[in-house]
Design goal:
about 210 residues; mainly beta; Immunoglobulin-like; 1 helix; 18 strands
């Protein structure tokens, strides 16, 4: 059987971390698909042109990318942990490649302010990029709760529906904060990529003003 070189590049970027994989057919360890991500796949089979190769996958869907020999493999929802990519020429199987399917790493968020001692001007939430990154995967912060706590008692709370930014009602509530107040930001959900259900993010915790 002709030697087949399969190069798989998993590039998931929302900041600085990049997953990159160069995989030989004889190795299964590095063939990984991330659920919800658009996983770039590059395939080169000596003796066959790009137009002669037909691909079939057992989970998700695969489509041509911009460059010849490049594809995007997307798996949105599955309980399977293993899947296969098959390469054909005129309905004849050339070879089959085994991939592992894994979930995206945990996504964290940060609370950000434009200055150190700001009492009113809040920017809201942003994705933390020091643990993992995503490239070209759309995500949306869904409504979350913001609560003011004073002397261990809940003073006020609002359901922020403005996405990652604090809406007007949230900003008005935060104007009521005292110097010793803390706020909590929790029940934070995000819709990421093509995942069918929103993901619950870790609560940001307490912030002292």
């Amino acid at each position: 059987m002709k030697r087949i070189l399969l190069t798989m590049l998993i590039l998931i970027t929302l900041g600085s971390v990049t997953f990159a994989q160069n995989v030989l057919v004889s190795s299964d360890a590095m063939r990984v698909l991330f659920i919800g991500a658009e996983n770039p796949i590059s395939i080169s089979i000596p003796g066959y042109t790009y137009a002669q190769i037909q691909l079939s996958v057992s989970v998700g869907n695969i489509r041509n990318d911009k460059n010849k020999g490049s594809y995007i493999w997307q798996v949105c929802d599955t309980k399977d942990t293993v899947t296969y990519l098959k390469a054909y020429y005129k309905k004849s199987l050339i070879d089959s490649f085994r991939f592992r399917i894994v979930s995206l790493p945990d996504l964290d968020v940060q609370f950000s302010r434009p200055c150190h001692m700001c009492q009113v001007s809040f920017k809201g939430l942003r994705v933390r990029t020091d643990n993992w990154t995503i490239q070209d995967i759309p995500y949306k912060i869904l409504p979350f709760w913001v609560t003011i706590i004073r002397d261990h008692k809940r003073i006020d709370s609002v359901l922020n529906v403005g996405g990652a930014e604090f809406q007007k009602e949230t900003q008005e509530m935060l104007k009521k904060t005292h110097s010793n107040d803390v706020i909590t930001i929790d029940h934070i959900y995000a819709q990421i990529g093509c995942l069918p259900k929103p993901i619950l993010l870790s609560p940001i915790g307490y912030f002292l003003f």
